[in-house]
């Protein structure tokens, strides 16, 4: 390929929004020559790699906008430490069929059992699959909605929790809410109903949500919409954080 032709291809690729091709056309040409690729195979190679680069760029951008506190995968989760948790149930969720169906997933259990880890891993998988995601604790969401309501911007702020395909709501039940705060949560849940997925974690059973939301009727209305299409995963094993702390103490004792 002549230098003039290469420059023309790079210019055209850049105009078409194909930056990877523009940067690597010489490498593609070399691989085509070495592999004696036909025209269709060469075109398939170029387009496949451009698509892979574009998907990776979109994935990384999605993670940046997601507000996830960290990026975990299910491969990093120690299922052997939670023998009562059926890995198949979590891995079924990882197929993201519930996201495609605009259904929900609820991870319930005491602190430290890995609920947030699984929620984040599912969100990362959804992001890689092309879904938009957003992470928030329940307390942060309520605080932001209250501030927006006071400033006359509630409708605009609600959109940030309604827009993503998957909304992760962490730590439901750690702090009880006033009725006005619970009503803001109800607005998010009801407006997302059958329009987008919610992944939530909670240290409370659903029977305790009346106490969490300060109103049995409102809690029932929230649960009615949340649980209509929802996969519930109880995790009732020991705490990972306690396990790690005990191991650290044992190491310190051994050293001493």
Automatic annotation (TrEMBL):
InterPro entries: AAA+_ATPase (IPR003593), DNAC/IstB-like (IPR028350), IstB (IPR047661), IstB_ATP-bd (IPR002611), P-loop_NTPase (IPR027417)
A UniProt-annotated Pfam family: IstB_IS21
Gene3D superfamilies: P-loop containing nucleotide triphosphate hydrolases
One MF annotation (Gene Ontology) recorded for this entry: ATP binding
Source superkingdom: Bacteria
One biological process term in Gene Ontology: DNA replication
Regions annotated as coiled coil: none
Membrane-traversing stretches: none
SUPFAM superfamilies per record: P-loop containing nucleoside triphosphate hydrolases
Keywords: ATP-binding, Nucleotide-binding
Domain AAA+ ATPase: 101-234
Family: Belongs to the IS21/IS1162 putative ATP-binding protein family.
Protein name (Swiss-Prot/TrEMBL): ATPase AAA
């Amino acid at each position: 390929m002549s230098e003039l032709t290469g420059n023309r291809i790079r210019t055209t690729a850049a105009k078409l929004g194909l930056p990877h091709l523009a940067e690597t056309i010489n490498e593609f040409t070399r691989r085509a020559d070495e592999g004696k690729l036909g025209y269709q195979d060469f075109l398939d190679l170029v387009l496949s790699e451009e698509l892979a680069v574009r998907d990776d760029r979109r994935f990384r951008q999605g993670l940046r906008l997601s507000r996830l506190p960290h990026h975990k995968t299910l491969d990093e989760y120690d299922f052997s430490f939670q023998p009562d948790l059926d890995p198949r149930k979590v891995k079924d969720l990882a197929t993201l069929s519930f996201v495609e169906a605009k259904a929900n997933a609820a991870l319930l259990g005491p602190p430290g059992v890995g609920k947030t880890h699984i929620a984040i891993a599912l969100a990362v998988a959804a992001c890689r699959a092309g879904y938009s995601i957003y992470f928030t604790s329940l307390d942060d969401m309520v605080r932001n909605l209250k501030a927006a309501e006071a400033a006359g911007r509630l409708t605009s702020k609600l959109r940030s929790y309604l827009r993503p395909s998957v909304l992760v709501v962490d730590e439901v039940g750690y702090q009880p809410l006033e009725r006005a705060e619970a009503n803001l949560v109800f607005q998010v849940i009801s407006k997302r109903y059958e329009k987008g997925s919610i992944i939530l974690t909670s240290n409370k059973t659903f029977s305790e949500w009346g106490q969490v939301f300060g109103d049995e009727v409102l809690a029932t209305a929230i649960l009615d919409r949340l649980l209509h299409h929802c996969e519930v995963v109880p995790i009732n094993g020991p705490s990972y954080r306690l396990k790690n702390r005990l191991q650290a103490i044992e190491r310190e004792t051994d050293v001493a």
